[in-house]
């Protein structure tokens, strides 16, 4: 059942090229310049007339929502707010019938997310679901939706659900960008064809596994870790830190790289590994200067870089390469080494990777 892998989590990490392809199969028709998604097409007016999109989710799905905020605002020029479902539902939020709410949930059963949907519907908002489990409560409760088609995710730590959620949300953003006329034909075409290359680029990113195992061995006994990223890769830093904490029980925090000097920099010394996402295009030079600041305080730097990078290689203690892609698609690649890293560290520490202590796969109570 684990398909020759030691754990479901590792199997699911390796399934991502296929899972991402399954997510866009039948939807992304790059050669015809079409993205086909019935749930969006049938409700296009609602999306185009929306004041804003509110995204609600928990945990890893909330991180996918944060990536989506960058994608929707950057590509489709639609204003987005991303909310923890638990906070949103209890703070008397302002919701009108001009709002579109997108709920993201792998299981489709998360209690707080479900309650947030019910609240938004009561207030007249149009509610769209992005779920993995077909026929789940959230899938049934929403007005329309798009499944991720990632296949069953058994490992408690979410991996392929995250990258496929980002894939679905990217398809939606591209459809809206096209419908709004904010994208030129050539830019639209560039995105569609690049998206089709992502599965093979994820495959390439997975080939760093042996190197990542070596790095995991160096840092497996750390008690604290920092994860930094900017722009599209800030949510990836949060996700990298969450993955490490939940399966290896090492304390980890993710931050936008520029926030480091507003506090976390005080933590940095020779015992602090700092994982920095430093891919080209995404404010690269600014991240390089953040890396220099860490280095001058003797922090250990493990950088995720674009293939062929030399500048960061000179500064970092370890570099892990990912293939080059469009900036907005980089989270689909930069996430991969961070998943593998937390997996190997957890295994080396003797942790129960697929069923970490105190955690459940679906959180049906608030
Ligand atoms: C993290 C993790 C959790 C879930 C969260 C939301 O690896 O698994 O943080 O992401 O409980 O679950 P869903 O997406 O099922 O609503």
From TrEMBL:
<comment type="subunit">
    <text>Homodimer.</text>
</comment>
<dbReference type="GO" id="GO:0005829">
    <property type="term" value="C:cytosol"/>
</dbReference>
<dbReference type="GO" id="GO:0006487">
    <property type="term" value="P:protein N-linked glycosylation"/>
</dbReference>
<dbReference type="GO" id="GO:0004360">
    <property type="term" value="F:glutamine-fructose-6-phosphate transaminase (isomerizing) activity"/>
</dbReference>
<comment type="function">
    <text>Catalyzes the first step in hexosamine metabolism, converting fructose-6P into glucosamine-6P using glutamine as a nitrogen source.</text>
</comment>
<protein>
    <recommendedName>
        <fullName>Glutamine--fructose-6-phosphate aminotransferase [isomerizing]</fullName>
        <ecNumber>2.6.1.16</ecNumber>
    </recommendedName>
</protein>
<keyword id="KW-0963">Cytoplasm</keyword>
<feature type="domain" description="SIS">
    <location>
        <begin position="43"/>
        <end position="182"/>
    </location>
</feature>
<dbReference type="GO" id="GO:0006002">
    <property type="term" value="P:fructose 6-phosphate metabolic process"/>
</dbReference>
<keyword id="KW-0808">Transferase</keyword>
<dbReference type="GO" id="GO:0046349">
    <property type="term" value="P:amino sugar biosynthetic process"/>
</dbReference>
<dbReference type="GO" id="GO:0005975">
    <property type="term" value="P:carbohydrate metabolic process"/>
</dbReference>
<dbReference type="GO" id="GO:0006047">
    <property type="term" value="P:UDP-N-acetylglucosamine metabolic process"/>
</dbReference>
<feature type="active site" description="For Fru-6P isomerization activity">
    <location>
        <position position="361"/>
    </location>
</feature>
<keyword id="KW-0032">Aminotransferase</keyword>
<keyword id="KW-0315">Glutamine amidotransferase</keyword>
<feature type="domain" description="SIS">
    <location>
        <begin position="215"/>
        <end position="356"/>
    </location>
</feature>
<dbReference type="GO" id="GO:0097367">
    <property type="term" value="F:carbohydrate derivative binding"/>
</dbReference>
<keyword id="KW-0677">Repeat</keyword>
């Amino acid at each position: 059942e684990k398909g020759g892998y030691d754990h479901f989590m590792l199997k699911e990490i390796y399934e991502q090229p296929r899972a991402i392809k399954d997510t866009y199969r039948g939807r992304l028709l790059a050669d015809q310049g079409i993205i086909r998604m019935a749930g969006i097409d049938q409700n296009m007016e609602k999306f185009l007339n929306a004041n804003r999109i509110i995204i609600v989710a928990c945990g890893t799905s909330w991180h996918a929502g944060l990536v989506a905020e960058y994608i929707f605002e950057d590509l489709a020029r639609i204003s987005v707010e991303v909310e923890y479902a638990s906070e949103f539902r209890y703070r008397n939020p302002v919701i009108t019938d001009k709002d579109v709410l997108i709920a993201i949930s792998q299981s489709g059963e998360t209690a707080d997310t479900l309650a947030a949907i019910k609240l938004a519907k009561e207030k007249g908002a149009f509610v769209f679901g992005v779920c993995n489990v077909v026929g789940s409560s959230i899938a049934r409760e929403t007005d329309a939706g798009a499944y991720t088609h990632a296949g069953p995710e058994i490992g408690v730590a979410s991996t392929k659900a995250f990258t496929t959620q980002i894939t679905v949300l990217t398809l939606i953003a591209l459809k809206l960008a096209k419908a709004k006329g904010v994208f030129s034909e050539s830019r639209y075409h560039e995105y569609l064809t690049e998206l089709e290359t992502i599965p093979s680029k994820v495959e390439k990113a997975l080939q760093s596994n042996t190197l990542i195992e070596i790095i995991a061995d160096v840092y497996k006994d750390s008690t604290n870790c920092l994860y930094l990223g900017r722009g599209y890769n800030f949510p990836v830093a949060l996700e990298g830190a969450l993955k490490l904490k939940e399966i290896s029980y090492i304390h980890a925090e993710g931050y936008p790289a520029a926030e480091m000097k507003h506090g976390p920099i005080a933590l940095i010394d020779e015992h602090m590994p700092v994982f920095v996402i430093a891919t080209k295009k995404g404010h690269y030079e600014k991240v390089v200067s953040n890396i220099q600041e860490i280095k001058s305080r003797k922090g250990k730097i493990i950088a995720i870089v674009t293939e062929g990078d030399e500048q960061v290689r000179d500064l970092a203690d370890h570099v892990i390469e990912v293939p080059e892609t469009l900036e907005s698609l980089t989270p689909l690649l930069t996430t991969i080494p961070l998943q593998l890293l937390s997996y190997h560290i957890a295994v080396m520490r003797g942790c129960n990777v697929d069923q970490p202590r105190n955690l459940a796969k679906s959180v049906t109570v608030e």
